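User: Here's a structure from my thesis project, written as structure tokens. My advisor, Dr. K., wants to see whether a designed sequence matches the one we expressed. Can you design one independently, without my sequence as a hint?
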């Protein structure tokens, strides 16, 4: 399987237009499952298309196994069909007038693969993806999930060294998305292919990827394992973008006052943390501890206090919304908190769950 290196990639549309991708450098290891994660318009699909050869970078180099397939300075550009990469689009791009078998065999037919070998590969791939029984149907006769499997089968039949997936699950319902996530993980485990997967869905990225690259406005924010991205966000953007319920942010910049800021100062002092460089702090709702404490207990663990606004059961956990003198603070309890609207509750956090950021919104290491 192939490794991919992006060196100082820049992409802009028009001579004076803003850069869609700004100085992007990244290593994608062989057999890695990398997710490009970010909001719409951050440049993740453009990056994928440059790797595939459907977009030309304005500057920089792209290397596969150490050999350049794109180098703007040297005038090198390997055409897409010579890159041995498989691409699955968001809209599947199946031929409506061809049967499922012919769609899966399409790339092999273009390669002039001998008929016997082509049929064997097509049958094997369709069987693995559970679509062999639809071989003589047409795409319009299949559901969205089945069409997705056909698109994957067509790509896998070519045995690419790199698999590129552009939000391939976004058109599926919740149940089919779960099934296809499991299918993609199985394909990666069995084939060992290098996979680059574009998504704006953090849940997909966290459950599928071995490595996540978070992007924003054409710039790479952080590259790391799912645990790194979640537990050690490099900056405020990553901290606020990743998380099923948005992280609680407490602003501590000059002039900011209020009960939550006062509580944060107590927490920093309690843990012996220098407060001077801290401009803001993030506390994930699921890391927030709740309970009714005595005055002494609250002082010992630097607990804050607030009034419960609402408790929302989500099946296995409860979202607790707390009002702290006019400011909302959220917590997630994994056991029934036995709280109701109007109750008073204490909340506190452990040192390892504090995410502190400086005035440039970069992470402060504890």
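Assistant: Designed independently from the structure alone:
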């Amino acid at each position: 399987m192939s490794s991919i290196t992006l060196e100082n990639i820049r992409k802009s549309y028009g001579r004076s237009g803003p850069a869609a991708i700004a100085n992007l450098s990244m290593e994608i290891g062989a057999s890695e499952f990398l997710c490009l994660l970010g909001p719409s318009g951050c440049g993740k699909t453009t990056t994928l298309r440059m790797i595939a050869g459907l977009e030309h970078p304005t500057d920089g180099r792209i290397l596969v196994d150490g050999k350049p397939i794109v180098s703007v300075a040297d005038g090198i550009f390997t055409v897409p069909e010579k890159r041995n990469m498989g691409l699955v689009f968001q809209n599947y791009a199946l031929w409506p007038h061809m049967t499922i078998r012919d769609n899966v065999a399409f790339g092999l037919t273009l390669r002039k693969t001998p008929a016997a070998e082509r049929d064997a590969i097509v049958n094997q791939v369709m069987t693995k993806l559970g679509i062999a029984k639809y071989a003589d149907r047409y795409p319009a006769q299949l559901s969205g999930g089945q069409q997705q499997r056909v698109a994957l089968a067509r790509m896998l039949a070519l045995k690419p060294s790199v698999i590129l997936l552009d939000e391939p699950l976004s058109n599926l319902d919740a149940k089919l998305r779960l099934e296809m996530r499991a299918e993609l993980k199985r394909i990666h485990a069995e084939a060992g292919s290098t996979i680059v997967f574009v998504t704006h869905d953090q849940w997909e990225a966290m459950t599928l990827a071995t490595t996540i690259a978070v992007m924003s406005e054409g710039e790479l924010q952080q590259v790391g394992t799912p645990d790194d991205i979640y537990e050690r966000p490099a900056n405020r953007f990553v901290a606020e973008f990743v998380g099923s319920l948005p992280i609680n942010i407490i602003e501590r910049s000059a002039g900011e006052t209020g009960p939550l800021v006062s509580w944060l100062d107590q927490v920093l002092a309690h843990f012996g943390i220098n407060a001077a460089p801290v401009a803001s702090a993030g506390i994930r709702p699921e890391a927030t501890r709740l309970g009714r404490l005595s005055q002494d207990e609250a002082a010992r663990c630097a607990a804050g206090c607030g009034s419960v606004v609402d408790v929302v059961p989500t099946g296995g956990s409860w979202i607790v919304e707390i009002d702290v003198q006019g400011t909302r603070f959220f917590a997630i309890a994994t056991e029934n908190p036995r709280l109701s609207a109007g109750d008073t509750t204490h909340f506190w956090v452990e040192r390892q769950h504090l995410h502190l950021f400086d005035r440039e919104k970069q992470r402060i290491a504890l």
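When you compare it with your expressed construct, this may help: The mean pLDDT is 91.
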